[in-house]
């Protein structure tokens, strides 16, 4: 615990000394106002980013687990799940057809089946509903 306190104290002291030095240089007119402002902005942005990352650490990437109960209760096929993942990536019907090596009409059929099974009327709503049910990451 003491190491952390000493490290933070040393860091704050270094920043305070830098700011005082910059203010001194600005006051004796050897440093332009614009340079002084830029240095202050960079220091405070850096401190803000550091504090933000310490307060809100990024969550550990847990592996995605598909909700198999929802898949079974909706009666989704494996191909429909693949199409749903492609829809979530924003791919068009032609792109999905090329990736899955099927015709665009087959993709349209899968998309229509997904809309009916999820009870939605559009791609965005289908993706939103699928994410809410944990069908796609």
Report on this model:
The chain has about 140 residues and is mostly helical. The chain has two domains: about 55 residues; about 60 residues, Winged helix-like DNA-binding domain superfamily/Winged helix DNA-binding domain (Arc Repressor Mutant, subunit A). It is built from seven helices and no strands. The protein is elongated. It starts with a helix and ends in a 5-residue tail after the last helix.
Task: Give a quick precis of the structure.
With 137 residues, the chain is mainly alpha-helical. The chain contains seven helices and no strands.
**Beta-strand content bin:** under 5%
Sequence stretches where pLDDT stays below 50 over 5 or more residues: none
Under the CATH scheme, which architecture of the largest domain would be assigned? Orthogonal Bundle
Query: Number of folding domains?
Result: 2
Main sheet properties: none
**Elements, N to C (H/E):** HHHHHHH
| Euclidean distance between termini CA atoms | 39 Å
Whole-number mean pLDDT? 85
**CATH level 3 topology of the largest domain:** Arc Repressor Mutant, subunit A
Q: Please give the share of residues in helix.
A: over 70%
The number of helical runs is 7
Shape: elongated
| Assembly level | single chain
What's the CATH class of the largest domain, please?
Mainly Alpha
Tell me the CATH superfamily of the largest domain: Winged helix-like DNA-binding domain superfamily/Winged helix DNA-binding domain
Strand segment count: 0
Radius of gyration: 27 Å
> How does the helix and strand content classify structurally?
mainly alpha
């Amino acid at each position: 615990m003491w190491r952390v306190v000493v490290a933070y104290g040393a860091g704050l002291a270094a920043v305070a000394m830098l700011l005082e030095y910059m203010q001194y240089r600005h006051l004796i007119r050897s440093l332009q106002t614009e340079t002084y402002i830029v240095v202050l902005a960079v220091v405070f942005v850096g401190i803000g980013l550091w504090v933000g990352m310490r307060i809100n650490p990024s969550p550990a990437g847990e592996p995605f687990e598909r909700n198999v109960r929802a898949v079974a209760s909706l009666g989704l096929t494996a191909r429909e799940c693949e199409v749903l993942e492609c829809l979530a990536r924003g791919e068009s019907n032609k792109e999905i057809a090329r990736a899955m090596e099927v015709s665009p009409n087959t993709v349209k059929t899968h998309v229509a089946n997904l809309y009916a099974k999820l009870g939605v009327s559009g791609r965005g709503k289908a993706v939103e509903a699928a994410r809410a049910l944990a069908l796609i990451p």
